[in-house]
Write a structure and sequence with these properties.
alpha/beta, Rossmann fold, Four Helix Bundle (Hemerythrin (Met), subunit A), 4-stranded parallel β-sheet, 4-stranded antiparallel β-sheet, 15 helices, 17 strands, RNA-binding
RNA sequence: GGCGCCGUACCCAAGUGGUUAAGGGAGCAGUCUGCAAAACUGCGAUGCAGCGGUUCGACCCCGCUCGGCGCCUCCA
């Protein structure tokens, strides 16, 4: 039974979807005015994994993730560049797909934009005015927080407490300092839509209420986003949505913790900011591998805890992942010996159960990964005793299948341009497959060797080995090592290599 | 001022009121190997920031202290 920590109640609760076998979830996406950073990546990844796991658990998932494409920051950016807001949002939506794609984040089933839901937004605002929960003032419309009993339920705040701490200048036209804008009149040169209150644009919070209701109905299962959205964004969404419908809005509220740098929240003012593309560009590994390293790193910590980002942490993820792909390589190499086949199913079954148990416990990916590590270790042992080709295939498939929940282990190769067959005696190199396309330039291109060069060296070394010329063989090993290439000799006398 | 979170070995990181406090990375030793790598085996917190309290018993519950952080304003 899956249980999820619900911000609304402050505890883990058994998860029951409104409709059997279907989960409807809404996640607040990004405001598209800049490149996404590693924190956006974490959030997107967390909900990507939740979605994957729900699907693995036989739910059909209706997953809606919005783009906020009307906003002050977008307008500002457009003015700075002297281009239209549409140009800005189009550019960054494209960038979003690129960056998230590199991380293996699947697209949501529906990715609505605020600008495409003006009718629904205006309708919702009107409804709130009619119900006496909102009031227009000279072209703006505000939500009146005092009229909604239960305001503060999600963030566990009292209106009075908020008032005490408010240090923002309060718009005198508001009836309560915490009243927030549902609709803003637009200034010349700003994007605007006609409305009963004059031409304007929606406030930030209302779009999510409108879009989630439109695509998922007035009550749905899961609503998610980063911790920082709890207040005011999600609090306001609840007020608007429940205020308008008098129904429950989202039933489970899920919030991910922050990515930090040196124990501090990333922020532009602190200058400790890493965009996703920056990380990929700085990486010396092929893109697919870098994506997987990032996933492994980000999923190594429970989604609600803060986690610190550093080069070192990525390096550690790489090393850990290497262990898996080393095993996968060996599983592919044939050596028919079915000695330990019997034990494999038990190992797999144990892992499946433990993996599910971990994920069912509020998506505990750290433990889930630990279980995969255990299976890696167990399979390594069995492999040492001997596994049939069929059993090896089954083992590899199991890693792929469980790993798919986390978006791991889907690559064919890992830091190994595999399939290089060096035929002993002939010393001829055949390349049976190629590396995934490397789209970013390596950190130190001057020391990069081409595959052909590497293969030539390996062939030469093999020759030397055959002639018992170990001095030369070691020389070649050393030389390749200086380029970051590690050679592993296999029992059959051939070699594999990795970076 | 209000609300909340965190402090587990060299590093990352799970976890539980009561047999051995997961797992990974790094390290060391051994097996294997021409050498190496990988794999395997072994070693590694008598202790979970500190101090009190509750309890037959706490790392896990409560209180305080110290240290770090987040939200209360746009923010994943």
């Amino acid at each position: 039974m899956l249980s999820i920590y619900n911000t609304l109640t402050g505890r883990k609760e058994p998860f029951r979807s409104l409709q059997p076998k279907t989960v409807r979830m809404y996640v607040c996406g990004v405001t598209v005015y800049d490149y996404c950073h590693i924190g956006h990546a974490r959030s997107a990844l967390v909900f990507d994994v939740i979605r994957r796991y729900l699907e693995y658990s036989d739910y059909q998932v209706e997953f809606v993730k919005n783009f906020t494409d009307v906003d002050d920051k977008i307008i500002k950016r457009a003015h700075e560049r002297g281009v239209s807001c549409d140009a800005i949002t189009a550019e960054y939506i494209e960038a979003y797909y690129q960056d998230m794609g590199r991380l293996g984040i699947r697209r949501a089933t529906n990715e609505p934009k605020a600008t495409e839901h003006m009718a629904e937004i205006i309708g919702l605002v009107s409804r709130l005015i009619q119900k006496g929960l909102a009031y227009p003032v000279a072209g703006d419309v505000y939500f009146q927080v005092e009229k909604y009993q239960g305001y503060g339920r999600l963030s566990k705040r009292k209106l009075e407490d908020l008032q005490a701490g408010a240090r923002v200048e309060v718009d005198a036209r508001k009836r309560h300092p915490m009243d927030f804008a549902l609709w803003k009149s637009s200034k010349p040169g700003e994007p605007s839509w006609d409305s009963p209150w004059g031409s304007g644009r929606p406030g930030w919070h209302i779009e999510c209420s409108a879009m989630s209701m439109t695509h998922l109905g007035e009550t749905f299962d899961i609503h998610g986003g980063g911790m920082d959205l709890i207040f005011p964004h999600h609090e306001n969404e609840i007020a608007q949505s429940c205020g308008a419908t008098d129904k429950e809005f989202a039933r489970y509220w899920v919030h991910n913790g922050f990515v930090q740098i040196n124990q501090e929240k990333m922020s532009k003012s602190l200058g400790n900011f890493f965009t996703i593309r920056e990380i990929f560009e700085k990486s010396k590994w092929p893109e697919a591998e870098t994506g997987e390293m990032l996933r492994y790193f980000l999923l190594g910590t429970h989604y609600r805890s803060p986690l610190d980002f550093s080069d070192k942490s990525i390096e550690e993820a790489k090393n850990a992942l290497n262990g898996f792909y080393d095993l996968f390589k060996r599983l592919k190499e044939s050596e028919e010996r079915a000695t330990a086949d019997e034990g494999l199913m038990a190992v797999i079954e144990r892992c499946r159960v433990a993996f599910r148990e971990a994920m069912n416990d509020d998506f505990n990916t750290s433990v889930a990964i630990a279980e995969l590590q255990r299976m890696k270790s167990d399979v390594n042992k069995l492999l040492g005793q001997g596994l049939s080709t069929e059993a090896r295939k089954i083992a590899r498939e199991e890693f792929r299948s469980l790993g798919n929940n986390l978006g791991l282990f889907q690559l064919e190769k890992w830091q190994f341009i595999g399939g290089i067959v060096v035929t002993p005696g002939v010393a001829r190199v055949t390349i049976t497959s190629f590396a995934p396309t490397v789209t970013v330039s390596p950190v130190s291109p001057e020391i990069e060797l081409s595959e052909v060069q590497i293969e030539q060296q390996i062939a030469e070394r093999l020759d030397a080995k055959k002639k018992k010329n170990f001095a030369q063989a070691d020389e070649i090993r050393k030389s390749l090592a200086s380029h970051g290439i590690v050679i592993e000799d296999k029992p059959d006398g051939t070699s594999r290599w990795k970076r």
